[in-house]
Write a structure and sequence with these properties.
6 helices, alpha+beta, 42% helix, globular, single chain, 166 residues
Length: 166
């Protein structure tokens, strides 16, 4: 739970811009929270809003009361962002031919870049299900409404090192 060196983040962002894209369109954009304090603020904001919504019977997209409760009883103390100190969200305009593939390839490349640089990374879709009911919070990320998002990549210095085939 500490900030990744800004130099490393700058190198990662410099490299990820060369992830392959369909038709070589290069329309990918990236939203990043690269500061632990900002991420903690965002994490608490989302968590508080999610609890308010759940108390009113509104659950993350794709979840009913039972599945929501199961997710909340998971072993992680932060079921939404898995304790990640930073997040990267690749996104692209929905109207380009390969938006889905471009976004997913960028996330996969970023995860590999993190691992190659000694960082831990996790691809997460649950935060998007949670944020799907929070348009005002989603606006804080400044992602255009006409952009496709499939997942977020949480990253940081790993507490536990896993063997990865990079």
């Amino acid at each position: 739970n500490k900030d990744v060196d800004k130099k490393i983040i700058k190198e990662l962002m410099g490299s990820i811009q060369y992830a392959p894209t369909g038709g070589n369109k290069r329309k990918l954009e990236f939203t990043i929270i690269d500061d632990c304090k900002e991420m903690d603020y965002f994490r608490l904001l989302v968590r508080d809003e999610m609890i308010k919504l759940a108390n009113n019977g509104i659950y993350p997209q794709g979840f009913d009361k039972t599945s929501y409760n199961q997710m909340e009883k998971s072993v992680r103390p932060d079921s939404i962002f898995c304790g990640a100190p930073h997040i990267l969200i690749p996104h692209a305009p929905k109207n380009i031919p390969c938006a889905v593939q471009d976004v997913n390839m960028a996330a996969a490349y970023f995860e590999l870049l993190c691992n190659a640089n000694g960082l831990g990374a996790i691809c997460m879709s649950y935060p998007l299900a949670v944020l799907g009911n929070m348009p005002n919070v989603m606006k804080l990320l400044q992602i255009p409404e006409d952009h496709y998002i499939s997942l977020m990549v949480g990253f940081g210095y790993p507490e536990i090192r896993y063997a990865r085939g990079v």
